[in-house]
Amino acid sequence: MSATLRSRLSDIEDQIAALQTERATIISQLSAAAYPVLFLPTDTIAEIFMRYADGYPSTCNPRTLTKVCSLWRTVAISTPGLWTRFDYRSLGKLDNSAHASDVLGMWLSRTGALPLDLSIQLPSPGLPECTNIFRLLADNATRVRNLRLYSPETMEIPGDQLGQLSALTRLSLCGQHQRVLIPKPLDVPHLRHVELVAIELPHWRTCLPSQITTLCLKQQSSVELLRLVELTPNLEALEFIHGDFPSAAAIIGPPRALNRLHTLILGGHLGHQTCAGLVLPALRELRLREDRAANFRVVEDLIHRSGGSLTTMAFSVVDVGNFMDYTMNEMQSYLAQTPALRNLEITCRDITGRTLKKLCKVLQNKQLVPALASLQLLSQRQIPLHPLVQMLTARRDGGALRSLKMNLEPAWSDHAGGVDTEMELYLEELRSLRSGGLEVEISPEVQRLDSSVYS
């Protein structure tokens, strides 16, 4: 009797085991149907992660991927390409505390042998954390491709400890008008791009490599600009945002010739002596960041001394009281001196429809910049179609204009009542110009214009 019961019990246990196995299989199949991403091959998951990293700015933190599940954590940690960009701005308060070097060390340990792009906020000089960060940089010196250092205090960079930064092509030093000390020259044979933001550099005369081709100076003085360009005769692109009011007496010495410079970006309160100290025979592209009446004569002189060889220019038009007429006159002066100009970008700030009409009328004159092939208008207001179409038609009639881009900001909105008959006629003319070969690109925010032109 007992043997029969035990045999039956054993059979039941076998059935239970079989049912549990079947249950687990069904649950697995249900999970796969509900969450197929969990059952992708690990190399596919890694490729998706890399697309995620490439499509987002460096301030996105890949550690987010390690907190979803154990599989994702394993894949993320074992994918070196996810960790090659380190930006302190993506870290939380805990990571920016006294143990920031531990986070940086963990991060770098996951990068394999790949090139590195690092943005680091330095602790106060002399603290162990600061020493640890530079030790980590020295250990990985041959892999650092882009390096951005920020410090709200005096920054001291131990060039003799870092060794050769043989892969470094871009260096950014950012502060809050603090001194940056570099007692020994950095060994940076391939450095080409330098950015300096609101810092003082007493040692750059011995530390700035002459092979630099791009220099970006923000919140710097004109004196610093002219001192630095003496050390960088091979500059091809220069951005200068003035950080203080200029002093004409501060600029001493002969003009500085930058024979290779083809791109210049200017902003802030420019002094006449600043640009008067630069000779730019190869200048082809000029971009003005701000709307300051005091800068107009400076820029006009700069254009004149470039020999009228500009092919690309970008500037702003602003409507403030009686300033508009002055702006228009200066704009016409700019254009009259640049007969070779082919690309023109105009940003319209706080201007009325009446002012936009004036702007279109000025551009309608084909004697100004006869070679103009590409025009871009950026505005926060509705572009009046009638003068726009008139200007485009005049420019297309035997002219060189080939492309129009209206990059209207989201603040612009369509009229609530739909499209009236007169506007529909101008839209049709705009579409006709496009059919005739004019490349027209209108930002997606303007659905009414977009659908009318591209239907």
Automatic annotation (TrEMBL):
The keyword Coiled coil applies. It comes from the Eukaryota. Keywords: Coiled coil. Residues 2-29 form a coiled coil. InterPro entries: LRR_dom_sf. This is F-box domain-containing protein.
